[in-house]
Each structure stands twice: as C-alpha cells, then as structure tokens.
Amino acid sequence: MLIRLLMTVLVALFFFFAMRGAKIVPRGVQNVAEIAIDFVRINIVEEIIGKKEGYRFLPIVATIFFIVLASNLPSIIPFLNISPNARIGMPLVLAVVAYIAFVYAGAKKYGFFSFIGKSIVVPNLPLPMHFLVVPIEFFSTFVLRPATLTIRLMANMLAGHIMLVLLFSATNFFFWQFSGWSAVSLVTFAVSVAFMMFELLIVFLQAYIFALLTAVYIEQAIHADSH
C-alpha cells in the first residue's frame, strides 16, 4: 500500500511541476510531460475512440495509463522490488474505473437501459437464438471485461516478480551457499539482469494494453448501436 501511495504521489507531483506555469513552446520537464500525454492522445485515444469523442475521455485513459505504468515500475526498482499491481487490489480498482467509464459513455449517449439492450441484443437473429446469445453477450460485456482487465495485469506483474525472485535467489544460493558452484552464479546473475530488461518492456506494455482496452471498451459503448 505504501508503494501504491508513493508512486501515485510521484505521478501527481511530476505533472504538477511539469505543467505549472506551462508555456506555449514547452521546454524541459514540460516537454517530457507533453510528449508522454501526446503518446496516449495520438496512439491510444485518437486511434481508437477518434478525435471527436476522444478528448472527452483523454483524462481518464491517460490517468489509467500513467498510474499503471508508475505502479508497474517498482517491480524493477531496488529496495521496492514488487509492483503494487502484482496484488489484486490495485488492478481491480483500475478495472472498476475503466468499467464505470465505458458504461457511462454508453449510458450518456443512449440512456442506461437502451445502452444495455444495444450491447447484449444482436440484431437480425432468430428469436430462439436470443435466449442463448443475450446471456453470453451480457456476461462477456459486463462481467468478463473487468475480470480479464484485472487478472491480466495482476498475473503478468506477479509472474515477473516471481521470476526475478527465483533468479536472484539462485544467484545468492550459488555464490554464497553452494561452494564450488560460484561460476554458475555469474550465469544466473546475467540472466537476472536480462530478465529485468525484459520486465521493463512488460512494465510499459501492460500499461499500454490496459489503457488501450479501456479505450476500446469506451469506443464500443459509444457505437453500441452498430453491434
């Protein structure tokens, strides 16, 4: 929990100081912050939701992206060594936020019950098929989406944490405790460092995928009538 709070505060402070007294021509930290926000705006929000509707949802998608990214980073930071997203609490909260966002997007455009109906009723199906398809659509749209968002993020970060623990524990074992096998510790240490570099890629990819799927769900909610 302390790591969660720490990383959230760091993200807030970064953007606060970057955008305080923002200039038309960005320099320094403001430039870094704007490049980061533009990445989310162009490659996720505008690409998926579109420019017209995208600006309304940029704040929520960008917040999710940067919070997930910052919360993933401690998995490779010494003395922190574990991502808050390797525990189910944080991914679940973020998935609930994404869930509320896409339900709000659909309900705002169509009305709540109309949105539900458009999301689960597939047009032009024979009447008997609706008894099978409607429950499946409801489950996949309103139950499975937040569940898969939660489990995907948690499982990936937990798996990375376990692998790093095993590799560095093996290095410690071969170097300090298993005399005669010290040379093997060099191999396990090299693999550990290589896996840390790979984990750094995973840190970014998981943030990107979580934000991307949030944008996809919002876009589908906005265009529920073209089911």
Automatic annotation (TrEMBL):
<keyword id="KW-0066">ATP synthesis</keyword>
<feature type="transmembrane region" description="Helical">
    <location>
        <begin position="156"/>
        <end position="177"/>
    </location>
</feature>
<keyword id="KW-0406">Ion transport</keyword>
<feature type="transmembrane region" description="Helical">
    <location>
        <begin position="189"/>
        <end position="218"/>
    </location>
</feature>
<comment type="function">
    <text>Key component of the proton channel; it plays a direct role in the translocation of protons across the membrane.</text>
</comment>
<comment type="similarity">
    <text>Belongs to the ATPase A chain family.</text>
</comment>
<feature type="transmembrane region" description="Helical">
    <location>
        <begin position="88"/>
        <end position="107"/>
    </location>
</feature>
<keyword id="KW-1003">Cell membrane</keyword>
<protein>
    <recommendedName>
        <fullName>ATP synthase subunit a</fullName>
    </recommendedName>
</protein>
<dbReference type="InterPro" id="IPR035908">
    <property type="entry name" value="F0_ATP_A_sf"/>
</dbReference>
<dbReference type="Pfam" id="PF00119">
    <property type="entry name" value="ATP-synt_A"/>
</dbReference>
<dbReference type="InterPro" id="IPR045083">
    <property type="entry name" value="ATP_synth_F0_asu_bact/mt"/>
</dbReference>
<dbReference type="InterPro" id="IPR023011">
    <property type="entry name" value="ATP_synth_F0_asu_AS"/>
</dbReference>
<dbReference type="InterPro" id="IPR000568">
    <property type="entry name" value="ATP_synth_F0_asu"/>
</dbReference>
<keyword id="KW-0375">Hydrogen ion transport</keyword>
<dbReference type="GO" id="GO:0005886">
    <property type="term" value="C:plasma membrane"/>
</dbReference>
<keyword id="KW-0813">Transport</keyword>
<keyword id="KW-0812">Transmembrane</keyword>
<keyword id="KW-0138">CF(0)</keyword>
<dbReference type="GO" id="GO:0045259">
    <property type="term" value="C:proton-transporting ATP synthase complex"/>
</dbReference>
<dbReference type="GO" id="GO:0046933">
    <property type="term" value="F:proton-transporting ATP synthase activity, rotational mechanism"/>
</dbReference>
<feature type="transmembrane region" description="Helical">
    <location>
        <begin position="57"/>
        <end position="81"/>
    </location>
</feature>
<keyword id="KW-1133">Transmembrane helix</keyword>
<keyword id="KW-0472">Membrane</keyword>
<feature type="transmembrane region" description="Helical">
    <location>
        <begin position="127"/>
        <end position="144"/>
    </location>
</feature>
